[in-house]
Amino acid sequence: MGLTINTIPARYEIKVTPAKLEWKTRNADLRITQKPPLIQIDTEQPLLKIDQYQCFAEEGLKNNLDQARDSARKGYANLMKYIAKEAQDGDAMAKIGHKANIMLDIIRKESVTMHEFGLGSMPTSRPKVELIRGNLKLEAAERNNPGEINGVSGTYVAGDIDFRYTPWNVDMRMLSYGSIDVKYTGSNVDAYI
Q: Each residue of 54-90: pLDDT tens digit?
């Protein structure tokens, strides 16, 4: 007996798409610019002037003009002394009839040198001290630019978040249905029980 059995299995397809969560972020951005403070400083140094010329002049250290004037003054004083002495000697000799020893008196007076002594300190005057005050001037640069506070300005860009969600998805479809095909191919039938 000929019996043919053909089976075709059932086939189906399952597509699963998992859920997805995607996001993109942009960070917040804060930009601050600051201009340094500008201060203009003008200074004039103090001066201390010390004039010691009079102290040095008393010790004999003078400039050429003062030295020449002092020498001229001393020469004039010595000349006047000499003229006065000569005039006194002349007056004394004019009275020669009254005294017989006038020449001896003049010689005695000229032969003895008179010295004057005294105590002094050098220098006798103080130096002249003069203070010229200095000057300090501070000037801050003003800033009147719009949007600035004391030279500081800032820009802020807010952050951003972009969400994208894809839900779960299950897609099922039948590709082929199952079947059983039974065929009798013989001519005799044998039956046994």
A: 888 888 788 888 889 989 999 999 999 999 988 988 8
In the structure encoding, which two tokens stand for residue 144, read together?
A: 């009147």
Those residues whose C-beta lies under 8 Å from the C-beta of residue 192, and which sit 6 or more positions away, are: none
DSSP summary character for residue 184: E
pLDDT digits (tens, 9 = 90+) for 1-54: 577 888 888 888 989 989 998 989 988 888 888 877 778 889 999 999 999 888
Please give the Cα distance from 145 to 143 (Å, whole number): 6
40, 48, 50, 41: which is closest to 135 by C-alpha? 41
Q: What is the dihedral of CA 92, 97, 101, 105, to 10 degrees?
A: -10
Residue 174 is which amino acid? M
Q: Which letter does DSSP use for residue 62 in this model?
A: -
Alpha carbon of 36 to those of 40, 137, 146: distances in Å? 13, 20, 17
pTM: 0.38
Q: How far, in Å, CA of 179 to CA of 5, rounded? A: 10
